[in-house]
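Q: What would this complex look like in 3D?
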Amino acid sequence: MKMNSVLSNEKPIVQSQTKLKTGEVNLYYGSFQALRNISLEIPEHAITAIIGPSGCGKSSFLRLFNRMNDLITGVRVEGMVELDGIPIYDKNIDAVELRKRVGMVFQKPNPFPMSVFENVAFGPRRHGKRNLGELEDIVERSLHQAALWDEVKDKIGQSALALSGGQQQRLCIARVLAVEPEVILMDEPCSALDPVATLKIEDLMRSLAQEYSIVIVTHNMQQATRVSDMAAFLMMEEDRAGVLVEYGTTSEIFTNPKDKRTEDYITGRFG
Amino acid sequence: MKAGALKRQLSQRTAFGLLITATIIAIVPVLVIALEIIGNGAGSISWDFLTQVPSQAGKSGGILPAIIGTFYLMLGTIIFALPLGVMAGIYLTEYAKDNWFTRSVNLSIVNLAGVPSIVYGLFGLGVFVLLFHFGMSLLSASLTLACQALAMTVTTAREAILTVPREYREGSLAIGATRWQTIRHVVLPQALPGIITGAVLAMSRAAGETAPILVVGAAFLLPGLPQSPFDQFMALPYHLYTVAAHVPGMPKSTIWGVALVLLIVVLSFNVLATFIRLKARQRRLNA
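A: Here is my prediction, written as structure tokens for the whole assembly.
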């Protein structure tokens, strides 16, 4: 059933606008090339999955869009990366401002060792919101959006570290939503969670895709077919640099892959 | 077969015996010193001894100025050493690039800890007492001890900051917090117990130092308490040294009494540091 709802998304996707775009991007860590010549367009208000074997540069690719790679010394980006047509690696682009528009959820849930409230209010506070009433509204709205409110409304003042793993991850999503981003990057957000918690996050992603553009890196083929509208398959070449093998709607990639390597991967012949 | 097993067992026991003996020998001096000082000094501790100023070159009266002087010194040391140490620690962990400048700063900090304390004293005499005209004073002594304590406060601050998981920093940066906001609101609160532990240990060490303060303002006998940072002061370790070595006819019990008070001050700060560390660890595990 889930599969069908995804497939039914196909048509609007084709028509929708491009949110993120890369053009012949190369990424280097020192002398090691991690990504080679990647060009693709990520649509607005949809879920795009990045799949591929371990070490093929999926995470590095994801981190291009909020410039988290900048934090690593010796990193170098060549080519074009655009958000709404604006080149984000331009000199006059402030990475801090960019990250308000492009939020990120990590592999391991990483709530701060503070209360649930302070976790969600963290971003808005840093961006200058001081009024407590306003912050309370933002926290409640974000927790509702992250489908967590009913579970935590009575322990909003308690430590976030006391929540379960799945709740912590939804809290991290709420923390990102509180900043009102346009894009949410997710780096294997369910890999540390059990199947029930995983399904909850996937449902949440589908509902968020109405308003947000989501890019998710995942190891899990089923997950990619369940949640994503578009799928990009990355693979390592001989020199361990990641390249884009195939990109298209999820249904195309999984039912009718054009490249032999994509077919081998999704049918479990390697990876 | 049997003989071989016996032999193995024997060498096993010998090794165990040797190791436990070495361990016991290592703690014997500490125990003996502590017991000796408590046994001989406890008798001379009295309300008057702790609250009176000394008279007859310290032979009678109390040691209040030395106790207060030592606390002033600890306070003065940490006021200068902690902010500088924390700021340098933040810079070195969060901002510094790996280049020759950073490497030479790191090397200097390691070496700073190895400089003999009397050398700090002479440095303080040259710079704070003479060059800056702070004179022989509490201020000069605090600054001198702060220089010595810097090695410790920088190192502990740096280590405490490094133990804060990278995930927290990324989580903060990824929602558009600046690097400084991340340090201020995520990293520092987490590193605080470690930083405080280092500061308390640095204070306890400052309380025990004798050589550096000898030449920058410690006085043998003062009739009262220092009234300003530019006054001379008394301090427990220097007082102990003079009453033990330079006053003929000094009652032995007084000497032990001073030693006991000094020991209590230093040890209580070490215990406090351990306590803070344990509490922080507990909080981390419970969370």
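A: To summarize the key features: The domain at 47-286 of chain B is CATH 1.10.3720.10 (MetI-like fold). Chain B has two domains: 2-44, 47-286.
Q: Very helpful, thank you.
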